[in-house]
């Protein structure tokens, strides 16, 4: 066929032509393209490689922008990009850059224009939109861009099946990438010198500097696009300023002054997470689910308790309480939980902890515990090796270093699960919607050390606890130890609510440790609220006291197991008689609060009516002065006599003899509350 | 918290676990209105609550036209009847610094503190134990003052200073954006500036005299004593001061 008519395109396609021009400008086509031969046009759809290539282009672009793939684009593309290019640089070979520059006056749709016109419009429109959007969509994604350029070349090179650049060669679909982004299994043909020159030139233009992501190629493309869009009168004269403007615009995306940019990403994420809380589990039919859920679940009625605590002036806001409820429900679904209770919230520096106290069903715990034990044993093995090596060195030295006679105090074994301090398992999460994490069991040494230090919680369970005396563990262990202390000190109930089970065993048999279990008293009739407020004798502890040793039941640390006795018999004889450890005794379970020791001439508990104006409907509120933030309520109504001691919101300074530096505190509460309400605690 | 937006502020600050029971809220709303009328304040703020052993003190502050001027502090035990507290002085501060422990909750309670004072009797100098009585009211006043000085925080842009001196509320202040709200530099200590004069000229050049007339939180020592523990789902951020923990600013 002859050359394509260099005439202005039919006026029926103004938009597509402008798009043509834009696209082609970007291409910076540098060579002439020969007109499309009709036979070639027919060949094109048949050539599987071409289709593949163009499909790849399409898929690439559709991946970028989600446009539907259009196989019919193929023939259109071919039509479009043939034209005379007035900007052709004759030095470049045609294969690599067959992109045609279309001046506004030209349309390559030569003889087939009339036939392909509607398709062309459609195809062009879409293609250009795709390419435009793809182009603008990833300015910073240069590698992607390069591939995009490369691949955009494909259909064009295929379409213009003329002369030297059209080869029936699979490798030509993917013009050898100058930058090596595409790795192919096919062999690349030896590039001709002109081709090589083109590649080199393009590579040079595409490189970006350290200072910016913008390459010269892109910038020139932008500039020419801008010029062709605006069509100023004397472009050469304005070239400098246009250059500046284009550069500036690249780095300053136009902001819409009328609409706000969407901000607040973190809150969106949080909302997403919390939305998951509200979704119901999708298994089962609707009716079945309702029935199951109305049956007893382990999740307590948080909202009711929140209501009562609100009367007392304590608590989270109602929507947060509800979210906590949903989070607990989620926990119950995930873990094999028998009973569950919302223990409270501990405030931390960066994040807070929501703590849930749970009991697993029988037998469920063992698997997880074994894992934990294995890990600790592994650690101990390592330490043993270290000691052996140290011994060897000592022997080699000429001077025998006297071995220190100090022995670390015997490690007191931790209590078994479901007994004493490890009676309950604790799960924590940072906020409703986040996953629940299980806290490890607490060891006596951790409790003992936790009594000596005051540290804020950061909110991250794996944060180290750097203190003096050193705390054996990370924040998770510290948190667990404080939870244990708080629970032991502040879980209280009205007198008579719990009673000892009718057991035959005497107290003496258990070594004077007292009973460690209780059950609800079915005959409990409730104590009038006024009486509850008047005297502390009406309240009792229902958790075991933690002995100074760090456990609830006393263990003689000097009692050695059989293995140890065999190894250390000699030492034992020497030590015998020197240390005699007294058995530590604590107050037995269900001791009334009136027996609690005073703290610095101050009663350890404060009891009030929630509302003095309406005493007949108010609840009795008991507040701990030792652990600020621990509250208990009881209403006179025996049906709601449950006293979920809610050691609420802990923060900060537990009054402890001086120690600890600066603003450290263990979970004491934040009675200082909101907006400047302060409880001024002076240290002791 | 401003008496007018009390409920909203209480809701937002509830993350710390401290709140007010419904009866207190209701009585507060009513009585603060009356306080504003009686004392002719420009704004009445509910400062907070100080817990005592026997009873709690509820504190309110009244603000006149100039925002930074010393405020009048009132206290109440039942959120209904308010009594004015005397302004704080330095002597009060030194006097009450010896008292430690919780507040009793009874404003007439007197703390006894024994001091060893040197008494000159003629030529002899000997130490005598003197029992000093400190009223709880005094202690209350100085404690509130100290807390305010340490931790009262205000976001940048909420107040502006006119060339004539008085400091006014910026009515066009709509709050900080989320990214700004997380930075310590967008908050100021709400008190007379102490460090501002010590800044170098270079630093001062960047400041805007109408907005930056108080100390920023950025330079507090120890670092990180004020932190942002949580972002409320509604997007407000709670700032928690570590030194006087329990002090939350929304």
From TrEMBL, chain A:
Keywords: Cell projection, Cilium, Cytoplasm, Cytoskeleton
Biased amino acid composition, Basic and acidic residues: 24-34
Low complexity: bias regions: 14-23
Ranges for region Disordered: 1-40, 361-414, 502-521, 560-585, 637-684
CDD domains membership: DD_CrRSP4-like (cd22963)
Pro residues bias locations: 1-13
Stretches with biased composition (Acidic residues): 362-377, 502-511, 562-583
Location within or outside the cell: Cytoplasm, Cytoskeleton, Cilium axoneme
Main localisation: cytoplasm
tRNA processing among keywords: no
InterPro entries tied to this protein: Radial_spoke (IPR006802)
Domain of life: Eukaryota
Comp. bias (Gly residues): 657-676
Name used for this protein in its record: Radial spoke head protein 6 homolog A isoform X2
TrEMBL record, chain B:
Subcellular localization: Cell projection, Kinocilium; Cytoplasm, Cytoskeleton, Flagellum axoneme
Keyword field: Cell projection, Cilium, Cilium biogenesis/degradation, Cytoplasm, Cytoskeleton, Flagellum
Top-level taxonomic group: Eukaryota
The keyword Transferase is assigned to this record: no
Organism name: Bos indicus (Zebu)
InterPro entries: RSP9
Underlying gene: RSPH9
Entry protein name: Radial spoke head protein 9 homolog
Similarity-based family: Belongs to the flagellar radial spoke RSP9 family.
Keyword Acetylation found: no
């Amino acid at each position: 066929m002859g050359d394509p008519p260099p005439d202005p395109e039919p006026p029926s396609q103004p938009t597509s032509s402008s798009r043509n021009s834009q696209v082609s400008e970007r291409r910076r086509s540098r060579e002439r393209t020969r007109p499309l031969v009709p036979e070639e046009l027919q060949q094109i759809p048949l050539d599987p490689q071409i289709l593949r290539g163009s499909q790849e282009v399409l898929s690439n672009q559709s991946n970028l922008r989600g446009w539907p793939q259009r196989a019919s684009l193929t023939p259109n593309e071919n039509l479009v990009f043939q034209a005379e290019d007035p900007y052709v640089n004759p030095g470049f070979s045609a294969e690599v850059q067959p992109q045609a520059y279309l001046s506004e006056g030209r349309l390559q749709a030569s003889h087939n224009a009339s036939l392909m016109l509607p398709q062309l419009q459609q195809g062009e429109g879409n293609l250009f939109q795709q390419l435009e959007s793809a182009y603008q969509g990833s300015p910073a994604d240069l590698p992607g861009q390069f591939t995009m350029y490369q691949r955009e070349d494909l259909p064009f090179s295929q379409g213009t099946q003329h002369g030297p650049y059209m080869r029936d060669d699979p490798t030509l679909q993917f013009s050898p990438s100058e930058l090596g982004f595409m790795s192919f299994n096919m062999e690349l043909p030896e590039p001709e010198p002109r081709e090589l020159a083109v590649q080199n030139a393009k590579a040079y233009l595409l490189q970006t500097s350290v200072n910016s992501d913008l390459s010269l190629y892109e910038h020139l493309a932008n500039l020419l696009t801008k010029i062709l869009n605006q069509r100023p009168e004397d472009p050469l004269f304005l070239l400098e300023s246009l250059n500046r403007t284009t550069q500036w615009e690249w780095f300053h995306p136009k902001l819409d002054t009328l609409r706000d940019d969407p901000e607040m990403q973190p809150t969106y994420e949080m909302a997403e997470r919390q939305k998951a809380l509200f979704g119901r589990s999708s298994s089962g039919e609707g009716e079945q689910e309702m029935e199951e859920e109305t049956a007893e679940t382990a999740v307590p009625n948080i909202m009711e308790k929140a209501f009562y605590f609100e009367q007392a002036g304590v608590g989270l806001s109602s929507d947060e309480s509800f979210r906590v409820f949903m989070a607990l429900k989620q926990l119950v679904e995930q873990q094999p939980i028998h009973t569950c209770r919302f223990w409270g919230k501990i405030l931390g520096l960066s994040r807070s902890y929501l703590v849930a106290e749970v009991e697993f069903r029988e037998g469920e715990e063992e698997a997880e515990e074994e894992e934990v034990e294995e890990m600790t044993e592994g650690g101990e093995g390592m330490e043993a090796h270290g000691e052996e090596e140290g011994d060897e060195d000592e022997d080699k030295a000429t001077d025998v270093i006297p071995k220190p006679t100090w022995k670390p105090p015997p490690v007191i074994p931790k209590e078994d699960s479901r007994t004493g301090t490890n009676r309950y398992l604790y799960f924590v999460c940072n906020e409703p919607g986040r996953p629940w994490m299980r806290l490890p069991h607490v060891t006596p040494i951790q409790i003992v050390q936790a009594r000596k230090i005051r540290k804020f919680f950061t909110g991250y369970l794996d944060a180290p606890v750097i203190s003096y005396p050193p705390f054996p563990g990370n924040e998770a262990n510290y948190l667990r130890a404080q939870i244990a202390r708080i629970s032991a000190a502040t879980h209280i109930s009205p007198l008579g609510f719990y009673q000892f089970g009718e057991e035959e065993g005497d107290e003496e048999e258990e070594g004077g440790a007292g009973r460690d279990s209780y059950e609800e008293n079915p005959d409990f009739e409730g104590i009038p609220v006024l009486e509850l407020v008047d005297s502390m004798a009406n309240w009792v502890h229902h958790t075991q006291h933690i002995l100074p040793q760090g456990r609830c039941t006393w263990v003689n640390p000097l009692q050695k197991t059989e293995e140890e006795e065999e190894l250390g018999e000699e030492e034992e004889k020497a030590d015998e008689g020197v240390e005699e450890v007294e058995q530590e005794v604590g107050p037995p379970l269900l001791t009334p609060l009136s027996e609690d020791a005073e703290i610095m001439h101050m009663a350890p508990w404060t009891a009030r009516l929630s509302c003095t104006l309406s005493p007949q409907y108010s609840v009795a509120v008991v507040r701990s002065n030792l652990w600020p933030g621990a509250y208990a309520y009881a209403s006179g109504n025996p049906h709601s006599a449950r006293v979920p001691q809610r050691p609420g919101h802990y923060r900060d300074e537990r009054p402890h003899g001086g120690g600890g530096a600066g603003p450290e505190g263990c979970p004491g509460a934040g009675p200082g509350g909101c907006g400047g309400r302060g409880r001024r605690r002076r240290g002791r | 918290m401003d008496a007018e937006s009390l409920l909203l502020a209480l809701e937002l600050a509830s993350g710390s676990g401290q709140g007010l029971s419904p009866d207190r809220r209701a009585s507060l709303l009513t009585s603060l209105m009356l306080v504003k009328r009686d004392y002719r304040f420009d704004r009445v703020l509910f400062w907070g609550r100080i817990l005592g052993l026997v009873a709690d003190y509820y504190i309110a502050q009244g603000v006149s036209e100039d925002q930074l001027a010393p405020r009048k502090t009132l206290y109440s035990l039942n959120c209904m009847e308010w009594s004015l507290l005397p302004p704080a002085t330095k002597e009060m501060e030194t006097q009450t610094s010896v008292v430690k422990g919780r507040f009793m909750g009874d404003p007439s309670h007197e703390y006894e503190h024994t001091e060893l004072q040197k008494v000159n009797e003629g030529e002899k100098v000997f130490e005598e134990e003197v029992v000093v009585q400190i009223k709880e009211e005094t202690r209350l006043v100085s404690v509130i003052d100290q807390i305010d000085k340490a931790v009262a925080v205000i976001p940048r842009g909420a107040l502006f200073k006119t060339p004539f001196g008085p400091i006014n509320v910026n009515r066009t202040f709509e709050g900080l954006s989320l990214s700004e709200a997380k930075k310590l530099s967008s908050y100021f200590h709400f008190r007379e500036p102490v460090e501002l004069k010590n800044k170098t000229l270079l630093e001062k050049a960047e400041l805007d005299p109408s907005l930056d007339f108080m100390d920023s939180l950025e330079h507090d020592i120890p670092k990180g004593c004020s932190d942002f523990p949580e972002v409320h789902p509604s997007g407000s951020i709670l700032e928690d001061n570590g030194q006087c923990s329990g002090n939350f600013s929304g």
